[in-house]
Amino acid sequence: MMTLGQIAQLLDGHCAGNAKKTITGLGKIEAATKDELTFLANPKYLKFLEHSTAGGILVAKDFHTADYPNLDFITVDDPYLAFSTLLAHFQRAAGQAKSGLETPHSVGKNVKWGAEVYIGAMAYLGDDVALGNHVKIHPQAYIGDGCVIGDHSIIYPGAKLYPGTHVGSYCNIHAGAVIGSHGFGFAPQPDGSYQNIPQTGNVVLGNHVDIGANTTIDCATVGSTVIADGVKIDNLVQVAHNVSIDMHTVIAAQTGISGSAKVGKYVKIGGQVGTVGHITIADHTTVGARSGVTKNTKSDQILFGVPAIDRHNYLKSYAVYKKLPELMSRIEHLEQKLLNLTSGKTSK
Questions:
Q1: Three-state SS string across the chain, please?
Q2: So which residues are the catalytic ones?
Q3: Which fold has domain 100-312?
Q4: Which of 282-286, 299-303, 341-345 has the lowest mean pLDDT?
Q5: What is the pTM of this model?
Q6: Could you tell me which CATH class the domain 2-96 is placed in?
């Protein structure tokens, strides 16, 4: 629960209205109640303001709040981003309400934790685990021996952290995610069989990392698989052993990053993308959905297709591809004309 004035201060905005009004939640612009705050970032939703009962509305600084004297506003640089910040704040506040140990649970030897830690029912913590302040371990989560979890991080139900995993502060590991599982390493034998290669490393997550539901991140063969600060990984993503993903990269669902690939800073990877191993995806690269990256990329490239190529070349190639039926018809017509001409010459 916050007042509009407190929210404006949190968002570095300005309250145009009753700064003492209390807000208890957030809502959609078409349905927000008198106790909820909403936002307006797209002009097509302007129509909802006329009959809005929202307790407050986030708008851009150039919005004419005086046109709606019956509503209370907070003006900010970017309403969408501000609303996102507020969602995170309210979510954290709700999550922090939980603390203490539910039963049954299992906690190993030499476990250390900070203030206001929550351990849900059926959760397992191995030996020598270290938890920071306000860490939340939800029911049926598994935290292996020697794991370290930073302040304010949340491990959601059923997530698994293999031994030695390091998680930074303000991270979210969603339900069913598996961090630190065995990397896909097998040595081929002369008889065609495969010998298992022990995977002795770990996984290290930076701060403010989000890992989606049922995503898997394999431990390194030796050393660490590293996910840097601010990385956001969607559901059902596979990150193989010894991969490194640099700061503030985003990866959409059903993508697979093969072993020892290096993904740079601020990279955007669409859904169902695949990469080969041992390549480097340079900083600020964008990879379109369902593309296959087979070689190193250059900074600021936009790639599409299988194999992934530069966007401009892809669009030119696709323009030709769309014309293939017409071109085939013309080729067949020309072949028939040539056949007729050839037949005519032969008959003479």
A1: CEEHHHHHHHCCCEEECCCCCEECEECCCCCCCCCEEEECCCHHHHHHHCCCCCCEEEEECCCCHHHCCCCCEEEECCHHHHHHHHHHHHHHHHHHCCCEECCCCEECCCCEECCCCEECCCCEECCCCEECCCCEECCCCEECCCCEECCCCEECCCCEECCCCEECCCCEECCCCEEEECCCCEEECCCCCEEECCCCCEEEECCCCEECCCCEEECCCCCEEEECCCCEECCCCEECCCCEECCCCEECCCCEECCCCEECCCCEECCCCEECCCCEECCCCEECCCCEECCCCCCCCEEECCCCEEHHHHHHHHHHHHCHHHHHHHHHHHHHHHHHHHHHHHHC
A2: 241
A3: UDP N-Acetylglucosamine Acyltransferase; domain 1 (2.160.10)
A4: 341-345
A5: 0.84
A6: alpha beta
